[in-house]
Amino acid sequence: MRNGRESSESKSSPPVECPEDGTAAIAIEYPQEEETVDTAESIFFKIKTNVPVSQVEISIDDNDWLPCRESGGYWWFAWSGFLSRWHTVHARAYGHDGAVHLSRERTFVAKINV
């Protein structure tokens, strides 16, 4: 159990990796691959889904999965309290059909401006 709920991998089909051809069910749109994000406060992750989903979560630096919120046709997560350095992020979506969709890993640099 993570974040107070059972992992859906144990209850549904195995995760579906995103394809190489741009037709992924879930994709991280921001930050871009190897982008440097200069910020004084938070990084706002923007995730797009191309299939009907009931929930989206992200994992930063291979830590616990964190719930995203839906707004304006995208899923969002605000991250603060990070260190200035390279980070990785993955996203996963739970389809209405029970499928679990995984995004490609995204690598980026967080740079704190004070």
The largest sheet is: 7 strands, mixed
Number of domains: 1
> How large is the radius of gyration?
14 Å
Number of helices: 0
The top-level CATH class is Mainly Beta
Order of helical and strand elements:
EEEEEEEEEEE
Query: Mean pLDDT score, rounded?
Result: 85
Alpha-carbon distance between the two ends: 37 Å
Low-confidence stretches: 1-13
Q: What share of the residues does DSSP label as strand, in percent? A: over 45%
Provide a short characterization of the protein structure:
With 114 residues, this protein is mainly β.
Structural features, described:
The protein is mostly beta strands. Strand 5 and strand 6 form a beta hairpin. The N terminus is likely disordered. It has one domain: Sandwich (Immunoglobulin-like). The strands form 2 sheets. Strands 1, 3, 5, 6, 9, 10 and 11 form a 7-stranded mixed β-sheet that branches.
Task: Looking at this protein, list some descriptive labels.
Immunoglobulin-like, mainly beta, 114 residues, 11 strands, disordered N terminus, seven-stranded mixed beta sheet, four-stranded antiparallel beta sheet
